[in-house]
Write a structure and sequence with these properties.
With about 200 residues, this protein is of the alpha+beta class. Helices cover about 15% and strands about 30% of the residues. The strands form two sheets. Strands 1-2-7-5-6-4-3-10 form an eight-stranded antiparallel barrel.
């Protein structure tokens, strides 16, 4: 895995043990491959969750694609329409990876994290779902830049859909030389399901 390539294109996600965190708002991610339900943790990554939910409320993700899929690593999406045109975003959100890690949110299989560039505070709309334990993406891990990628939720249903997307054949597409699904995986819509107390 080319770590520099990861920085340039951004990516991340994580999983937590049941009952480790209070239940938070849930979002249904309806894709052309099936529906994934996410649970978000605003108590651990408040700015990140609010940023993500604002993009959900604005309909930003509707019609975007998973433009980077690496089996055994992660699925990245939320930034490009089907024609590979990059969507406009709001200003970046501060990197909350340190607080997330200290709160028990790490880049483990089944978690969702914010993608960014080499600037730790550059995350906007792109996110990734970890399909493996990617501890080198955590805040403080010496194998990364130390700043980490902020995990802010996890997959609570539709893990089979995540696995199916991870196994999709990939190749070049649009401006990307590799890792683009040959059959586009479209995020048809994202919908806030409930905010549990």
């Amino acid at each position: 895995m080319n770590f520099k390539h990861l920085f340039i294109l951004s990516a991340a996600a994580a999983a937590v043990t049941p009952n480790a965190l209070a239940a938070g708002p849930q979002v249904d991610v309806r894709t052309s491959a099936g529906t994934i339900r996410l649970e978000l943790y605003p108590a651990k990554a408040p700015k990140t969750v609010e940023n993500f939910l604002q993009y959900v409320r604005d309909g930003h993700y509707n019609g975007t694609i998973f433009h980077r899929v690496i089996d055994g690593f992660m699925l990245q999406g939320g930034g490009f329409a089907g024609n590979f045109k990059q969507k406009p975003t709001r200003p970046p959100v501060v990197n909350e990876a340190q607080g997330a890690v200290k709160g028990g949110l790490k880049n483990e299989a089944g978690t969702i994290a914010m993608a960014r560039t080499s600037d730790p505070n550059s995350a906007t709309a792109q996110f990734f779902i970890n399909v493996a334990d990617n501890s080198f993406l955590n805040w403080g891990d010496p194998r990364g830049d130390g700043n980490g990628y902020a995990v802010f939720g996890r997959v609570v249903s539709g893990q089979d859909v995540v696995s199916k997307i991870a196994k999709t054949p990939t190749g070049p597409g649009g401006p990307f030389p590799s890792d683009v699904p040959r059959q586009p995986v479209v995020i048809e819509s994202m919908t806030l399901v409930t905010a549990k107390k």
